[in-house]
Automatic annotation (TrEMBL):
<dbReference type="InterPro" id="IPR029028">
    <property type="entry name" value="Alpha/beta_knot_MTases"/>
</dbReference>
<protein>
    <recommendedName>
        <fullName>tRNA (guanine-N(1)-)-methyltransferase</fullName>
        <ecNumber>2.1.1.228</ecNumber>
    </recommendedName>
</protein>
<dbReference type="InterPro" id="IPR002649">
    <property type="entry name" value="tRNA_m1G_MeTrfase_TrmD"/>
</dbReference>
<keyword id="KW-0489">Methyltransferase</keyword>
<comment type="subunit">
    <text>Homodimer.</text>
</comment>
<keyword id="KW-0808">Transferase</keyword>
<dbReference type="InterPro" id="IPR023148">
    <property type="entry name" value="tRNA_m1G_MeTrfase_C_sf"/>
</dbReference>
<dbReference type="InterPro" id="IPR029026">
    <property type="entry name" value="tRNA_m1G_MTases_N"/>
</dbReference>
<dbReference type="GO" id="GO:0032259">
    <property type="term" value="P:methylation"/>
</dbReference>
<dbReference type="InterPro" id="IPR016009">
    <property type="entry name" value="tRNA_MeTrfase_TRMD/TRM10"/>
</dbReference>
<dbReference type="GO" id="GO:0052906">
    <property type="term" value="F:tRNA (guanine(37)-N1)-methyltransferase activity"/>
</dbReference>
<keyword id="KW-0963">Cytoplasm</keyword>
<feature type="binding site">
    <location>
        <begin position="132"/>
        <end position="137"/>
    </location>
    <ligand>
        <name>S-adenosyl-L-methionine</name>
    </ligand>
</feature>
<feature type="binding site">
    <location>
        <position position="113"/>
    </location>
    <ligand>
        <name>S-adenosyl-L-methionine</name>
    </ligand>
</feature>
<comment type="similarity">
    <text>Belongs to the RNA methyltransferase TrmD family.</text>
</comment>
<keyword id="KW-0819">tRNA processing</keyword>
<feature type="domain" description="tRNA methyltransferase TRMD/TRM10-type">
    <location>
        <begin position="1"/>
        <end position="223"/>
    </location>
</feature>
Length: 252
């Protein structure tokens, strides 16, 4: 997969993209990340990318010309068709399902906005618009990092095992179950006996139950009964019976 990122601050990406999983994926040729400085596509000696908004108001707006030219340059750099995505508070809320959807694309072009936003005409050349949450950031650089990381993890081979991402939080709509490792006892805190039993069926049931329990406690909004099996519903009923202060999901 290739990801092109258009930004006013390419130096911000040096740390996240030069270490850990993303760096290994790039080194192995599974992922290619190219940064494009929008200022490089201006045509005045001061490389001005923004101007005051028509109609007045606070802040500055990024001009359309350098963005259009930067997108064109990124598109022409490779033959594969690209999904052009604007990182914006007005976009659809980024989820694991969207990350999986984007991971199937051969190329992504991510546009990082800044200041008060981009000239509205830029939206005529984008194919998608994504927000990473209902809060305000200084620019689209951090959202671009988030999207790139979440998508790259789903590219085959990036995590090593093809199943590594399947048990992670949000992969199936639930939060992930608790993890334990050696030693079996530490400062009086012990590992649940079922995890030491070697009974794989019992371990799978415990993990599913804990995943449901944690989701019910912390993110009940994620529980969609239509997507839960009869076994999951029974587990939820058990959990609600044991913890009467939890939301009544199974019985609703």
């Amino acid at each position: 997969m290739r990801i092109d990122i258009l930004t006013l601050f390419p130096e911000m990406f040096a740390g996240p993209f030069s270490s850990s999983i993303l760096k290994r994926a790039v080194d192995r040729g599974l992922l290619r990340i190219e940064l494009h400085n929008i200022r490089d596509y201006t045509h005045d000696r001061h490389h001005v990318v923004d101007d005051t908004p028509y109609g007045g108001g606070a802040g500055m707006v990024i001009k359309p010309e350098p963005v259009f030219e930067a997108v064109a340059a990124a598109q022409s750099a490779a033959e594969e068709p690209a999904e052009i995505i604007l990182l914006s508070p007005a976009g659809r809320l980024f989820t694991q399902a969207i990350a999986a959807e984007l991971a199937l694309k051969p190329r992504l072009i991510l546009i990082s906005g800044h200041y008060e936003g981009l000239d509205e005409r830029v939206r005529t050349i984008i194919s998608d618009e994504i927000s990473i949450g209902d809060y305000v950031l200084s620019g689209g650089e951090l959202p671009a990092m988030v999207v790139a990381d979440a998508v790259a993890r789903l590219v085959p081979g990036v995590l090593g095992s093809s199943d590594s991402h399947l048990d992670e939080s949000h992969s199936d709509g639930l939060l992930e179950y608790p993890h334990y490792t050696r030693p079996p006892e530490y400062r009086g805190l012990t590992v649940p006996p079922v995890l030491l039993s070697g009974n794989h069926a019992a371990i799978a049931r415990w993990r599913r139950r804990e995943s449901l329990k944690l989701t019910l406690k912390r993110r009940p909004d994620l529980l969609d009964l239509k997507n839960l099996s009869a076994a999951d519903r029974r587990l939820l009923a058990e959990i609600e019976a044991e913890c009467p202060d939890t939301p009544d999901i199974a019985g609703s």
